[in-house]
Amino acid sequence: MALSYGLSLNISMVSSIQNQCTLANYIISVERLNQYMHVPSEAPEVIEDNRPPFNWPAVGKVDICDLQVSFTSMFYWCLMKQLMKANILKELKYQTDQI
User: Fold this and answer.
1) Quick one: how far is CA 7 from the chain centroid?
2) What pLDDT is attached to residue 10?
3) Which of 67, 76, 65, 66 is nearest to 98 (CA)?
4) Which of 38, 53, 91, 98 has a 20 to 30 Å separation from 72 between CA atoms?
5) pTM passes above 0.85
6) Cα(50)–Cα(84) distance, rounded to whole angstroms?
7) What residues in the chain have per-residue pLDDT under 50?
8) d(Cα 69, Cα 96) in Å, to the nearest integer?
């Protein structure tokens, strides 16, 4: 009898804690909805008065001057492998300095 009472008390406590956690999740969900309702909207995707010319860009060239990037050597070799595989570095001139 005591064992049966102990098991039923344990089950009641577990279900009570589970219900409290579910209720807390619902309350947090409502709080998040309230926050998201007051987030300012983004700018429009296209601003008609500020569009580039119709024939832009006229030349497909990008000049990057004095770029300094730092990352681990393992990342460097993985990046170079992917860029070579994609044939992106065909005409790229670059120099690396060991730190």
Assistant:
1) 45
2) 83
3) 76
4) 91
5) no
6) 37
7) none
8) 10
